[in-house]
Design goal:
The protein has 145 residues and is of the alpha+beta class. Helices cover 30% and strands 38% of the residues. β3 and β4 form a beta hairpin.
Length: 145
């Protein structure tokens, strides 16, 4: 399941969907807006996307994760618009028969999403400044899809 949403991300319904009889592990990852980045106070993040391409890329990542690992469920939700401090901007929930696969798939999905998906982040700081942040900054080279 892939979703781009302007509403707050609700984790429990995703966990409920991933919790199935054939799954022995459910891994949930939330990327949230943090208060401080490199010593600067963040007020909020704003996400924009070229939605048709972003959706297509997320579908590609989901399909590739399902090929690489024996996933029971693979759910990716990314928020668009403004995301205040402490709210989730992205959720990835995977389930599989064994925890190692669910953890590996979730790690690979978030790293790959940051590198390839056309979703852009604008950071707004308390000093009134703002800047668009390149999505792949800080992503490890082995995360390339």
């Amino acid at each position: 399941m892939i979703e781009l949403s302007r509403d707050p991300i609700l984790l429990q319904p995703l966990i409920d969907r991933a919790t199935q009889q054939s799954a022995g592990a459910v891994v949930a990852f939330l990327g949230i807006t943090r208060r401080y980045t490199e010593g600067r106070e963040t007020l909020r993040l704003k996400y924009e996307a070229y939605e048709p391409l972003a959706r297509r890329d997320l579908e590609r990542l989901e399909a590739e994760a399902r090929r690489k690992w024996p996933l029971v469920e693979c759910l990716i939700v990314h928020r668009l618009g403004e995301t205040p401090v402490s709210e989730a901007s992205v959720a990835i929930v995977t389930s599989s028969p064994h925890r190692r696969d669910a953890f590996a798939a979730s790690q690979w999905l978030i790293d790959s999403l940051k590198l390839s998906t056309p979703i852009w982040k604008e950071e707004h700081w308390a000093d009134g400044a703002s800047a668009w942040i390149h999505p792949a900054e800080g992503a490890p080279p082995d995360a390339r899809p």
